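Hi R.,

Here are the chain sequences for the assembly we discussed:
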Amino acid sequence: MSIFIFEDDVFQAQHLKNLVEEICEKHQIPFDFIEVTRKEERIIEKIPLTTYIPIYLLDIEIKSEEYKGFQVAQEIRKYDPSGLIVFVTTHSEFAPISYQYMVSALTFIDKSLPYHERYELFEKCLLRYDERNRADSPADDFIVNTEYTSLRIPFHSIEYIQTDGPHRLALVTEERVIYFYGTLKEMEMADGRFLRCHQSFLVNKEKLSFYEPKQRAVFLKSGASVPVSRRLVSKVRQALKGE
Amino acid sequence: MNMIIIDLAAFTFIGISHILLYLQLIRYPRLSLKLVIPLGIAFTILLVIVVTASGYPEFNIILLMFFLLSLGLLKKNLSFSKSLYFALFSMVAITLVKMVLFELFMALFIVSPFHLYVWTGNVIHFIVSVIIAFFVVISRHPVQKITQAIIDSRFLYRLSYFLLAAGLMILFILTVPAANLLSFFYEEYGTASYIAAYILFFLLLIMMLISFHLTKEQMLVEQQKRSDRELLDYVQKLERMHEDLAAFRHDYINILLALDEGIRTKNLAQIEKIYHDVVAPTAELLNNHELDIVKLSRIAIPEIKSVLSVKLAAAQQQQVKVLVDIPDKIENIRMPVLAFIRMISILLDNAVEEAVRSTEKMLQVAFFETEDCQYFVVRNSCKAQTVDLRKIYEKHYSEKEGMRGYGLFSLKRLVEKMNHVTLETTFVAPYFTQTIMIKRQ
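And here is the predicted structure of the full complex:
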């Protein structure tokens, strides 16, 4: 496991390195090396040497080049599609949304935050990094890539997918809803981890909690309920037993 | 008996059309069809009872007039003369159209090879009434625009007022009245009034056509005016920012001088004081996101740019912190521009309204493209601790009274029409994020 820090200010770089080491020690997060550099080539060269998933802490503004950190992130993505990218910057004039989307960055940390807030944010990122490396199947994203839409959602967050009008689907997680073009059939074929429990519902097997015969619905761990058609009750019961 | 029922139904349709047309004219949309229909039925029954009981058909017109005028009281700021004008308009226009259509249909029927029965007249009456009611329901917007144009042009307003008043008199005479004076007029001038009614119909029709033409021109002028105004706002905003920047430059030199003095005398305490009192607060100025709005210049589609600048400036005026994130140039949008503007207007209106009510008062707008998608993201702070993400898109859902829920419902409808558009909604307290994703095709 490896940690990259991209920062041109020597003091800040040193400070950040100390901070990372402190957090890693506190939580006993193992790492092979911490690479602190101001040259993007150094990062690109070292990517093949990494084992497991690396984390990149990138300053966006390097030597008054506004987009440098961002360009480096795009470059990294060419070689490493799954590493965690965190932007560290003072350049608050640039809101983070577009960066997060374009290189699927994990998050964005403001250097000018008070020390303890910053500490907490880095701690969160490094814990996430640790968790990602421990998990058995790290790449659990559910990916939809059709002519009409491109989606990438962590599978464990999905609750269910429902039809919503002709050729329209609603994908529901605990904190978001996505309305997009597609058919349930396509989704079912694309990922075997779903369970068809109703003509117009696909449910995430991992989320099932219990079946309620009176309402003919299956309840999810979050408390949401999904209808079950008579024909498919046995399949749902089976899935629940398998848990 | 059947004939009476058919006639009654026809009268009901006409009654409903009167009420609907009048409500459209005074622009009072809050009575739904569900309410207007029973109202129309009740009113028609009342009329039938009064007219048959009293034997005075002229009550028809008088009662309708009073009924419409009292409906006009529902709407605030409606002057009596306007209310009267609209009531006249609704009554005269519908009655004349009904009359002309009835005559026309009868004439056609007589020419046609069908036999003429006693009930033919009643059936045609019914059909005409249904046609009128149908057109009143579907022609809401053009009717409003045309009358607005008539009112705006003083000459047409007065002329039509006069014509409508004359029309009312003719209608009175033509109802086969029972009051002495009126029945005298009917016997004396019945045929003349008939002809006058026809002339009036064509006069009003011509006026309609003229004002229809006027509305078109007026709309163009208005649109021009609006875009001029928006541009002016934008320029003023830029000027203000430039002034701010100039002021800061001036202050900055003073700050340097003060520091210089401290350094020269090696007075660390003074330097520290200057740093905390003078230098540190400037960080806030530099982070001032008012400057963000300049980034809108990266959008090459003028309509979208101006909508965004107006909405965001309005948000700033309501003390909402606005962050704009447009990293690259946006050359075009991969859907009809008008539909896109409607979508982002709904998103922004909702977001601003919600942000104003929240404690953080934060609004973030991002507009960018990746290799195969365009993204428009609106993120706002919000007061609610939980939001039912599915419910907000339902037709009558509303956080508070107002059109919020309805807006999101039509947003979803717009999205559904375009296969390559995806709508994502996320709520992680206290931030509410909505993303429109347009896939390249």
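The longest strand of chain A covers residues 84-89. Chain A touches chain B at residues 67, 70, 92-99, 101-102, 112, 147-151, 165, 167-168, 170, 172, 175-181 (CB under 8 Å).

Let me know if anything looks off.

Best,
T.
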